[in-house]
Amino acid sequence: MARLRVLHSLAGMLADEREQWPLWLPVGLLTGIALYFSLPGEPWAWAGSVAAAILLVACLVLRNQRGLALCFFALAVVAAGFGLAQWETWRVAGPLLTREIGPVPVSGRLFEVEPRENDIRIVIDSPVIARLEPEATPRRVRITVRTHGGIEPVPGAMVSILAILRAPPGPAWPGGYDFGRAAWFEGIGGVGFAVGPLQSAGEGGEAGFWQRAGSAIERVRLAATQRIVAVLPGETGGVAAALLTGERGGVPEDTLAVIRDSGLAHLLAISGLHLGMVAAIAFFVVRLLLALSEPLALHRPIKAWAAIAALIVSFGYLLISGMTVPTQRAFLMTFVVLFAVMIGRQAISLRMVALAATAILIIAPHVATGASFQLSFAAVLGLVAMWEALRDRVPGWRAAQSFHGRLGLYLAGIAITTLIANAATAPFVLGHFGRIATWGPLANLFAVPLFAVWVMPWGLLALLLMPLGLEAVALVPMGWGIEGILAIARWTADLPLAHLSLPHASPWALVAAGFGLLWLCLWRGRWRLAGIAGLAIAAVFCVMARPPDILVNGDADLVALRMSDGTLAMSTLRRDAFAREAWSRMSGDVAQVPWPGAGEVSPDDTLRCDRLACLYRVPDGPLVSVVSDPGALAEDCATADFIVALVPVKVACPAPLGVIDRFDLWRWGAHAITFTGEGVAVDTLARERGIRPWSPAR
What we know:
This protein is of the alpha+beta class.
């Protein structure tokens, strides 16, 4: 009886919240998309669509039984999300390189040019690759060019280059960020580096309309970037280009590190903040100019006209900033808000957020699994939920204040919104990056007003003045503001405990955080407070996360061992810098130390090496032998509890906890090994990625 009363009470609360039900539509789509990407293998092509159709039919048949019909409809939305992800995978499918080739001549149309601090990265569309059949040739390849003496790269031009190519890399460790999957959905089936200069390849075939349009936009972006850095050299120009054209390659790595540690990294990633600033500036300027005419102000819908003008300016900014997925998402949300203004509806509401999220998940389902989507919508969800709770009180607060009171109210609003945005995104930041800026709210309190009131207005004016060649008039004062933001970043990054680093958490931390945040923000009744439990569970997952004891890459030339002080002892500090940095961040941003030399012992006495192998005593765990020469196998197999052999093991090895050898590393890719009281847990890259279109079987 008690159980029935609880169920009846829950059903009553759910019925009372029926106005909030549509807000859960994108959540259902997101669930189906996440299920698709979590599978180890590719399902039947029509699984999602057929399941959605069957469930919708069942919903119609049972429409008189509302509770049951609602359950079937919810499941149909999940199946629809699954089907959307399948459809996108089929839509972008293309050949993928399966082995390293080259040096080979590569020719095609230059699609994208990304100037960076020490090199240039280019994307070639519809390439022709020597010794590779057309049906096996990727749709696009991305090549890093470090050589000099070639032609100036111009998007749209036909070029050729000598390069070494391979498949896009997978994660650096099991469960890490999958670069190969991201490249797959960008149409990139091969990456590599040039071993010769970039050369012209003649006129080539006639490009289609969209190719010509894309090339024209890329030429404008490249020219704008070059003119920005010509006026503002160094890190200031690099940051200005990142804000206006989306090109972050000119920002020095040490500057990026300072910006990350200060909690201001979101200012460099063109997103809702930037599009919102541009739209707001355009809206208020146009409306002010129209209001100067009394007939227009009294008899025409100048508010709607200003919204249209702001939308046009925002679309131009979308094009010039590179049309990345986060920027497209921000433009879509800006469009929803401005459209609401045009038709006289509430511009900021959870329904608008749900509508934007639904549209994005339909257009590009794969972005749902990325940090950018999750962070941006977590922040927006928290802020809009707060706005809906306070919007009836804010006008009264403003009306009761003097000028100085309104200024204080504005600063308090920045502080509160910064705290809410940081709180809403903190579990996702820790879950994806394992690192959070402790003084981020303080840095944002000073940097965001400077960014909003000074930097972005001058930046927008600079873009408008570029056709006249007068961009320096606006870029110079914009540079002053950027220098101020960088000074704030350095100040906060140098404060004690500037950032908190934790080992990479389980994916369930993101699930718990997402569900808790949604429950807290989307419902209105008191039961919404139960969402705090989800956030608390996510925090526990993050705090209790434990890094692997041993990491080995798939090429068997890099091994990392977790020492008693938490540092990572690397078998070499010369190879695979990318993997070493990724492993260090995943383990809690710990230091990297070299292995002791032959005949030496580590300071904590957990690792000792000779010329054949190293013996590693896991902290509070078993003895492991890392074998680099077959001559050590006979002795170490008899004494060690676990064997990591960087060579093939062709003889019986009775290590009680198991053996991993060169064949396992070749077959399964990178390994992450963790010793527990119950034994040993081995995660492999192949098992985590599964056999999917973007990760074919090795």
